[in-house]
Automatic annotation (TrEMBL):
This is FAD-dependent oxidoreductase. Residues 43-158 form the FAD/NAD(P)-binding domain. It comes from Billgrantia bachuensis. PANTHER family: FAD-DEPENDENT PYRIDINE NUCLEOTIDE-DISULPHIDE OXIDOREDUCTASE, PTHR43755. Residues 366-434 form the Flavocytochrome c sulphide dehydrogenase flavin-binding domain.
Amino acid sequence: MTKHFQRSALDRRQLLKGLGAASLLPLIGGVTPFTIGSQHAGQVVVVGGGFGGATAARYLKRANPAIEVILIEPAEIFYTGPFSNLHLAGLRSMDAISQGYDALQDRHGVRVIHARVEDVDAAAHTVRLSTGRELDYDRLILSPGIDIRWNALEGYDEEAADKAPHAWKAGAQTELLRSQLLGMEDGGSFVLVAPANPFRCPSAPYERASLVANFLTQYKPKSKVLILDAKDSFSKQALFMEGWEQLYGDRIEWVGLSGDGRVTRVDADRLEVETESGIVHQADVLNVIPPQKAGSIAERAGVTDDSGWVPVKPETFESQQVEDVFVIGDAAIADPMPKSGFCASAQAKVVAAAIAASLESRPAPEAYWTSASYSLVGPAYGISEAGVYRIQDGNIAEVEGAGGLSPLDAPEATRALEAEYAVGWYNAICQDTWGTQP
């Protein structure tokens, strides 16, 4: 477990309050890495309109308005993974976690094309769209998020996801899981299958279990949550477990790897899962979060390795395998940074600075990143983790003592304050990413 920093709770709260407000711009080399205006322009194509891609597109235009920035994203509305668990619990509508692209186009000068990128020709510096059109690029940014490793978990394929949803891409799957929760009989069992590392949003399965438990406490008080986990530890574990005990008693049961928590087979028709020892668990609602990999366009672009993720150059996030292709967000191997929306945004700003510099034949600014992760154990019970990262000996490393976790045994007022900060964090990062007005 990551250590808890008790020595300066006030300083830490101020840091998190800042990270949860509008000041989301990571500084690079001690100064903001953006210069306005240049006589050297180029064309940059950005694939993926989530926290990484949309931020990169916006900050490239901010770095140099003369750069032609084209954002390719099939969906006209993006539903955020962050706060999607609140929808499952009936605490937010889908509209409240939706983002559009009008502001990026109308106010920030990004050209948005709603299509799918089918292929990348790195030698020709072109991308081919689902419309048949080809676009040239001087630099290419891929922010494709994750894809599911279908059948990596026996019995869990695309058809199974219609019965035992993963809801790990917010949208239709989120709505499906919510409808199943609403239809579950009181006294039923919500079974959540959590994967081994790495996967998108390390703390999100446990926030989901928390908010589902909150919903059940109010509307289906005889029901319980069972988490079957392929790991023996997880993000913010002690904080979650403390909150579970305080808010939900024995309503949530967590079974880790050493306790036979790793699921090896799924039967979506029967809503059953089997663990390594052969024990079968029956669910009334089954939420399977399966193994993952980088979004499929990364593989077609030739930037993934045998792990299914993308190795990048730490200083710039340029692919280690393909020149002039940069990969950010969940798809990139950027340990020890977590795969999160905040980190995708921070990486996007570093990449925007690096590309703007390279198009002007300047060296990239020195990079560093901040990270803030909020989780809601209940609507008024927030916990958080912060980190700062720099390059050390050619690798990304966490700066010792620069971040930390919420303290254990904190008073109710502190947990309520962190829940407020979580809302501020969400609103601010969405404004910063898609360029919307407060």
